[in-house]
Predict the structure.
Amino acid sequence: MTKVNIQLFEQDKQGNLHETDQSQAVEIKAIRPGQLGAIAKVVNAIQKDLQDNKEFQDTVIKLFGQYQEGFDIEDLIRSEDFNIFDVLSAFGFLIETVPERTIELTSVASGIDSAYLELQDMDTFFEIIEAVVEVNDIEKIVKRVKSLMDKVGKALNFNKEAKQTTSKKQ
């Protein structure tokens, strides 16, 4: 468990948050199963956002489709496919979409309300993300989920095959 100091805010009658001079230590705990499901939903939403934006995909493919070892930013800029307006458009999409999803993901993983996360300074926000990563072995969690999904998939396929064999005998 890791503690992070967050800025406190007061809520007025209209629901607006106003900064105070106070902070509070918040304990970042290990992710629980209920949080894992909510995290998966946010990750799926991010993936869907990226898949639904064909312009973003085309720009990334144009710019990085021919990526090779030793490729650097100068090579990218000199490329025939480099178009600054496409890059700015893709960057704009990321700036609009990714921060919102990052806040949502961090909120679910840390247990801190997203309205409070949005108002923290960037240093504190990054401390919260680092604490979530530190407390949770994310790579291990992902591997365990994949392993479990493989086992469940095999079990379901075995069950399906057993039912098909039984129905053919009858």
